[in-house]
Amino acid sequence: MNPVPLIRAARIRGRVRQLGRELAGAFAGNPGRVPAIVALLDGSFCFVADLVRAIPVPDLRLHFARAASYHGGTVSSGSVTIDALPSCVGADVLVVDDILDTGRTLAAVVAALHAGGAARVRTCVLLDKPARRVPVDGVRLRADFVGFTIPDRFVVGYGLDHDGRYRHLPDVCVLDGVAIA
Ligand code: IMP
Ligand code: MG
After folding, report:
1. Cβ of 102 below 6 Å from ligand 1
2. How far does residue 3's CA lie from ligand 1's centre (Å)?
């Protein structure tokens, strides 16, 4: 399998800078409340590392949680496991993930944060694959902040993996030969 660049590192850098400014503006609507970012591991590790340094605010909290709906393959298993979700009672929360695919992962995390007492929950993803969205409880999830909308291809790089591989690639690449179900 041969990863072919789809979004080059320089374009990602530019878009992440813009997103950082957009997010600073979004957080400014809640003066006096320290925003809390919950980044979903493992896939968001590159994105969130660059994103937080591009948000020009004097203070924010950064937490990591782990959510998985893929278990080594390329087909979403349908069940989402969430580990280490922080307590965000009363907080203005931004969930950051690498990619919004079926929407099951983000929907489960958003629901868990609301159930845990977060005051507001918004979402930010580097990549959006709208073609594959499924309704969760009758709702097709939309992210509040999206880096790039991409076609229905399996992608790797800039944190995204195929079975643990290719996360280190600086570009987002299409992985030829991977069938998406
Ligand atoms: P969802 O629950 O189907 O939206 O899946 C979201 C998770 O699936 C992401 O956080 C990724 O870890 C993984 N995923 C979905 N599409 C891709 C892809 O094209 N490449 C790598 N991982 C993906
Ligand atoms: Mg993954």
Report:
1. yes
2. 16
Could you tell me if 180 and 154 are in contact, meaning their C-beta atoms sit under 8 angstroms apart? yes
Q: Half-sphere exposure of 138 toward its Cβ, with a 13 Å CA cutoff? A: 0
User: What DSSP letter does each residue of 2-66 carry, written as one string?
Assistant: -EEEEE-HHHHHHHHHHHHHHHHHHHHTSTTS--EEEEEETTTHHHHHHHHTT---S--EEEEEE
DSSP-derived pairing of the beta strands 172-175 and 155-156:
antiparallel
At 105-129, the pLDDT tens digits run 999 999 999 999 999 999 999 999 9
Instruction: Write down the pLDDT at residue 128.
Output: 98
pTM, entire model: 0.93
Residue 146 Cβ < 6 Å to ligand 1: no
102, pLDDT greater than 60: yes
Give catalytic status of residue 171 as yes or no. Answer: no
- Quick one: which of 78, 83, 133 has its CA closest to 112? 83
